[in-house]
Each structure stands twice: as C-alpha cells, then as structure tokens.
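From the pipeline queue, job 12 of 40. The input is one protein chain; the requested action is below.

Action: predict structure.
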Amino acid sequence: MPRASEIEAALFEIAPRDCAMDWDNVGLLVGKLGREVKKVLVSLDITEAVVDEAHRWGADLIVSHHPVIFHGQKRVTDQDVTGHLLLQLVECNLSAICMHTNMDIAEGGVNDTLAEWLSLRDVYRLEHTGVVRVGTLDAPVELPEFVRHVSKKLGCNGVRYADAGRHVYRVGIGGGACGEFEDAAIEAGCDTYVTADLSYHQFVDAKAKGINLVDAGHFPTEDPICHEVAAYLEAKFPSLKIQKSAVHREAIQYYVEGV
C-alpha cells in the first residue's frame, strides 16, 4: 500500500507545489508522511460531514481542493470552526492532503477540467492570469441556452447571470472566485465570462462593458476536479480504494418567488 508521502508526491506531479500562490497552503496538512494508506476520500472541502463520511467508510486519508488549514491558526481547540475540525480529523485518525491554487493553475487542473465539462474547444490559458482559460463553442448560441447548458453540466442549484446582449461563442472561464479577472477576459475578446462569487456591481456594469457574466457558483465550477483527482489516483495506485464524497454538495440554496 502507498504511503501518504507517495500520494502527496503523485498529486504534486500533476499540480506542482511551486505553482501554488505565495499565500496558499498545500500538501499534507494533517497526518504523518509515512502513514500507509488503503482508502482515500476525495472532496472539494473538508467539513465535519465529510470527516464523518470518511470515518464511517474507514478511510485513512482525505484529499481536498480547499485547504483545511488556511488562515493563520494559532491554537487547535474546539472553540472555533477550524480547530474543531482539526481535532475531529485527529480523533478519527484521518490525514488530509490539500491541492488548491496549484490545482487551479496546473494544466489539466480545475480550469481545464471546467472547460472540458462545458464543451469548449481550442482552449488556452491567459498567461498573465495563471488560471483563466479561454475557449470557443462549436457555434454561437443565445445566452439563455448557454446558461441552461452550464447549469445542467455542472448540476447548479441556480445560476446568476447578466445579459450584455451578445451571443455566446468565445468564453472565458475561471473556476471559483475569479471575478478579478473579468477585465482580462474582456481584453482577450470574450463575449462571455463564467466564474463564481461575482459582485453586484460587476453585474450592474456588465452591459456597459460588453460582456455576458455567468456566475455558476463556487462549488459547481470547482467540484468537477474531484472526479478527475479520484480517477487519477485510482489509475496511479490500483491497490487503493478511492471514493468521491457523496455528502458534500453545494452549500448555497436559492429561493425564487413564485417558483
């Protein structure tokens, strides 16, 4: 059976550590490098429910996208959310490996996977952003049709969007909170930008700036990478039992009057 260090190294092969942004926290964040691993649960986040799921299944390791330790953690007690979660991991004898912005930036990572799921072709990276990909559809479509396509492919609970009056053909994408790169997508000639966590004022200004905005949600735009990571680890380590979390899903619920 592989050790945690071998699994970490294998993940760094596809998402190198030096790709991670300076402020990020990636790699083995909880556990011993020499630990033998038999079962791995893959999830976008590590939550109490995910830890419970992993413990019930008998997993040794959770591989997640978002780091379980992110902001400076000065103590590990049950008096804050992160401390409580870390105690739960230790008490359940679970290790944690997290691959965050290195997986966003990596070729074949979060954003290339998102482009594939959205059926974009001729995809390339906007180098000065590191993360944003640009691609095209087979043919131009009206925005409502594209929004339905995005929602169906990603399993969204709801999609926020702004219509700039343009057909959708040249699409920029940034999985997760990539609203800061909207102008880069415009400069690249995109008629539409798909991301998450956009601000109110970005929607207000979209028509004046001439770009359709599609906010498909943080979880839906990043969760596809979990399927790819699970498949990669399964192929890399045939002796491992790999499972994608069944309990972790979109946290945001929508209420729409009259529906």
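Job complete. The two ends are 51 Å apart (CA to CA).
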